[in-house]
Specification:
This protein is mostly helical and about 200 residues long. The chain has one domain. Helices cover about 75% and strands about 0% of the residues. It has seven helices and no strands. The longest helix has about 30 residues, at about 135-170. The chain is globular.
Length: about 200
């Protein structure tokens, strides 16, 4: 049980680590168009992302798939940039009683597909922790569960900030989306440039 708890904490710490903020940026971009009243929709969206990264995290950690680490490190900020740009086309519902995003199904598919890429990024860190350890199923599950808890923590943090600014301070929801998505897109573009430069050197 102590091993399970240790890997769960490591998964949570890994995704919430400010030093490895690329995954955090993706989760922020993913939920930037939502508000606190839509938390159920956001959890479904994050679950789609989790299903994707759980699959490739398991396959890559078990060394059942091979990939270029440099390519994955480049693709992760690309997924962040695409998600942020897609937010620019979100139309705020005219009625407060119709707050469902305009194309939710497409967004779920996007989260699932991008989760596959992020899972391979997570696996590098997990493999370094496991080393030559033979029994990896339990650590893999615990680490993935920790990642999920970390994602939920980030989501509710972003939604709470959005609630304070939009509902209490009366910031326009459209403006909130553009500011957050613009900042995240800029940071993602910087990561793409840096990772592209490192891949060439």
């Amino acid at each position: 049980m102590s091993e399970f708890w240790a890997y769960l904490q490591l998964g949570f710490a890994h995704i919430t680590d400010p030093g490895g903020y690329d995954h955090v940026l993706f989760v922020i971009a993913l939920c930037a168009i939502y508000n606190l009243n839509q938390w159920k929709q956001v959890l479904i969206l994050v679950t789609a992302f989790t299903i994707g990264h759980s699959l490739t995290l398991a396959l890559a950690t078990l060394q059942l798939i091979q990939y270029s680490t440099a390519l994955i490190e480049l693709l992760i900020p690309v997924t962040i940039l695409i998600t942020s740009i897609s937010n620019f086309f979100f139309k705020v519902p005219k009625s407060r009683f119709n707050e469902r995003p305009n194309q939710p199904k497409g967004r779920y598919v996007l989260a699932l597909a991008f989760g596959l890429i992020h899972g391979m990024g997570f696996s590098n860190y997990l493999r370094s922790l496991l080393g030559q350890q033979s029994g990896i199923v339990k650590p893999l599950f615990a680490f993935n569960l920790g990642l999920e808890f970390g994602q939920i923590f980030i989501v509710f943090g972003v939604l709470t900030i959005a609630f304070v600014l939009i509902e209490l301070l009366k910031v326009r929801r459209h403006d909130w989306n553009l500011i957050v998505s613009g900042i995240v897109a800029g940071m993602a573009l910087s990561l793409i440039i840096n990772n592209g430069y490192l891949a060439q050197s």
